[in-house]
């Protein structure tokens, strides 16, 4: 059933000017793009499941901006959002994803054999390696809009499919609302547990409704493959391990994803995907691959170098603190990952991380020895 | 004129508005929408969507059964507001350990009718058995009827009366669109600009105020800010903040109106000291003048004779009135009979920061518990008599004399 303002048909008795949000103090992609004229064109439309323009933009209206990060400011309530509201979504996507055009095609490549190297990132510097992405199940509404019945159906489908995994992927599901105190503590200690979102960016979009109903965590017995169910997306899939063998992490990632997709297909469900946007997820920033491949790496010297930011930019990488987005680096250890999501394939993005991190570690070693790194400066990728 | 104007604005069937007063509504069914939404409803019967309320402790969770849910899930108000939207806040907030929260809100005036099957038992639970199907709520804003309204200022530091009012024909804060909210602001601010004499004042829009104005309003304890309570944010009241929100106060700074916070309007009359009678007199006079000013332009307040004034939260139906004092009771507050005395007087204590705050020192916020089933005059008189009794107890304890627990006050008249 609809959430929030969805079916407020009374709105249409008022003019577009009267309804247009005050975005004068806003700094997000939606606010930059949404003109009064565009608002007028889109305000009477809705997706087949009833998601409206105001639903799409509510989070961006309620959250004027982040001081350091340009937030997206809009979300999808279902797969059709990206089509029905393409007049808004296309320029937001173009702005967010480096000029990606409505006519561009996105390449999907989950064949880890195509990755070169990546198994020997120096473990003296690279403490851990991780690859994550998201998947949405076609035919269901996305977290901002889904009903309790849909969310539970997604959970049941996921449990059924994941329970069929075997070998090193065999594992167990922990529903958020049923876990014991011991299970909860273990998941916290393993850094697996996710909690009810507190970020107003997420809350304003309606993703946290009915918490913790239908939410849970699945992980394999080896604790190297993890799936979050019904957090910010239908599924978030994570492969991770200590050390620098990104190749192994990515291989497991691809194998696991491919198997999960097959298991869903056995049950007549597929992932949301199309050749223009790749994998369709709730936030436009995660379209395409939805992939963030990253490492925790020690760069105490390089991080103080005046060209650190520029180097990362050239390598198409971004830095975060070890707590994830919006955290600070601790002890010279940074989370370094790909900046892009759309317009590059999974293999291409992981390759960029592997090559880029190898270079960063080389630079760190040079600076440790008191040597210059000028000859190592990369070209813009 | 009011009726035709509201009809034009809302497009609502006038029969629905009349039926609200008559106490019966044939059906809230609106066969809208398209095939896809209908298909979803078929795929997901009400049982698939019924919320998990096993760990919940609020009035909505106590009243909502799968049967009621099944009957109401697919209904909508004329504005397409649904049951799920009414109860979302109660689903998302299982409960406060000490306070039984209500757990549901109205999106518009019609919510109370279309979803009466759930609102009625919640109203009964919250308002001590008041039955909106059979009972009538008395409205009485004649402040001249109040007696002994001047408290001993050695004990009473300040006096305050507040209520809320909703503008008929416009959706309530959980459901309103930006233009409706801006319309509420326009209607109310226009009306307030017509107030004269000791009531004349000015409006400060939340989004436009200067830093200096903001600091002044904070220092005077007038300013309200974006709600942080998950009870309110889960209901959608904070959308588009601070658009169309603001504060109006008179030049004398003792009559204050909040616009588009938790209700369309909250009206507050207050002053330092113990002259509750004067506070209430100004309250009633101000309210009547505002009502008159909006009626001149074809608007009216949401009201009916069974539920009194209609507000967003069922807990504020009836009078929506909280009359209270900040009072020092160093002896009485330490007496083990304090709570029982308050209970029997139908009063509640809060800390001086308001609900969910602790008392500082020996100073308490003491106010009426009830909102529905007794008139404004009755409730204010109850507070006056009750506070006078508390002061008597305090004085007796000061002198080393004993105090008595008063007999419990009767519930509303039938």
Task: Supply the key terms.
heterodimer, A: 381 residues, alpha+beta, Transferase Creatine Kinase, Chain A, domain 1, Creatine Kinase, Chain A, domain 2, 2 domains, eight-stranded antiparallel beta sheet, two-stranded antiparallel sheet, 12 helices, globular, B: 414 residues, 15 helices, 36% helix
Largest sheet of chain A: 8 strands, antiparallel
CATH architecture of the largest domain in chain A: 2-Layer Sandwich
* Tally of distinct domains of chain B: 2
H and E order of chain B: HHHHHHHHHEHEHHEEEHEEEHEEH
* CATH homologous superfamily descriptor of the largest domain in chain B: Glutamine synthetase/guanido kinase, catalytic domain
Mean pLDDT score of chain A:
93
Instruction: Work out the strand percent of chain B.
Output: 5-15%
Describe the structure in your own words.
The complex is a heterodimer of chains A (381) and B (414). With 381 residues, chain A is an alpha+beta fold. Helix content of chain A is 32%, strand content 14%. Chain A folds into two domains: 11-97, Transferase Creatine Kinase, Chain A, domain 1 (Orthogonal Bundle); 112-376, Creatine Kinase, Chain A, domain 2 (2-Layer Sandwich). Chain A contains twelve helices and ten strands. Chain A has an eight-stranded antiparallel beta sheet. A two-stranded antiparallel sheet of chain A has the order 6-7. The model of chain A has no long low-confidence stretch (mean pLDDT 93). By secondary structure, chain B is an alpha+beta fold. Helices cover 36% and strands 13% of the residues of chain B. In chain B, the strands form two sheets. An eight-stranded antiparallel beta sheet of chain B has the order 2-3-4-5-1-8-10-9. A two-stranded antiparallel sheet of chain B has the order 6-7. In chain B, helix 10 packs across helix 13 (276-296). The longest helix of chain B is centred in the last third of the chain and has 23 residues, at 376-398. Chain A binds chain B through residues 1-11, 13-15, 18-22, 48-50, 54, 58, 61-62, 147-150, 152-153, 177, 203-204, 208-211, 213, and chain B through 9-11, 32-37, 40, 43-44, 48-52, 73, 76, 79-82, 84-85, 88, 91-92, 171, 175-180, 182-183, 207, 233-234, 236, 238-241, 243. Chain B: Its main location: mitochondrion. Chain B: Residues 155-397 form the Phosphagen kinase C-terminal domain. Chain B: It is a peripheral membrane protein. Chain B: One of its GO terms (cellular component) is mitochondrial inner membrane. Chain B: GO terms for molecular function: ATP binding; creatine kinase activity.
